[in-house]
Amino acid sequence: QVQLVESGGDLVQAGGSLRLSCAASGSLFNIGAMGWYRQAPGKQRELLAAIFRGGDTNYADSVKGRFTISRDNAKKTVYLQMNSLKPEDTAVYYCNMQINYINYWGKGTLVTVSS
Q1: DSSP notation for 19-66
Q2: Is the pLDDT of residue 71 over 90?
């Protein structure tokens, strides 16, 4: 059984930084794309950043230049470095991985940015 576990969410002041991690465990025969999403109260879940097996990355305009996604294939982990955080970045952050050609989600980690 595949599980994704996020960590790193916290309360931070505007302008601060956080680093989120998401580690996969279980029967991991093939790991493809990895991504980070977030969902703020009353809003739809949105894709923030994706990183593909070869290392190519994509970012949403709202986080481009502030957030950086990276992956450690040996550790089966994806990271999201978040800098210059804003109150509007407050949300539950979810990781997503394509494993064995199936999409898996973590349960989320809460990021709160105070003004």
Answers
A1: EEEEEEES--S-EEEEEEEEE-TTS--EEEEEE-TTS-EEE-TTTTTT
A2: yes
